Amino acid sequence: MVIEEQRFQSKGKTFAISSAQEGDGEALSALRLRIDGETEHMDREPGEAFIDAIGFEDLIARDTIKPRNLFLVAVADGKIVGYSRCEGSELKRFAHKVEFGVGVAQHYWGYGIGTRLLECSLGWADAQEAIKKVALTVLAANAKARALYEKAGFEVEGVLHNDRRHADGTYHDTIVMGRFRP
Question: How does DSSP assign 55-95, residue by residue?
Fold first, then answer.
């Protein structure tokens, strides 16, 4: 699915959010690798589950034509600095929901880019008759993200205890959250 570009300004920073387009693959591959190395909040260690430019181009092409998928990018200072993705299922029993994920380069934290990616994704999901639920997982220790999701109407649906093991050997809980269309 494709949405029109939207422009935002926050704390002196201007950025735009739009659907990922053909040609964004290389920038997205580099950004995802960078983000995975900047924070422990992501599911992957740096370099794990690497997606190259061609892999991202394939994702963009599929998400553009699938009615229950949405791939957004945030552009600031002339480059892609964040992304979000909603992915639906082809299975009938799960066709009413999409899974949401987001990432923003650390240098661009604090400008509301992640919030706007979430808002644009939820606006799109709410406009789709077939989509009734948006689901996500978040590291329990990521209080800022949890607060953002709760403010957007997500509720905690469960806790996966000791679900993740970080490189330092510590275990962490994962929170499962969901939001039904208002």
Answer: HHHHHHHHHHH-TT-EEEEEEETTEEEEEEEEEE-SSGGGT
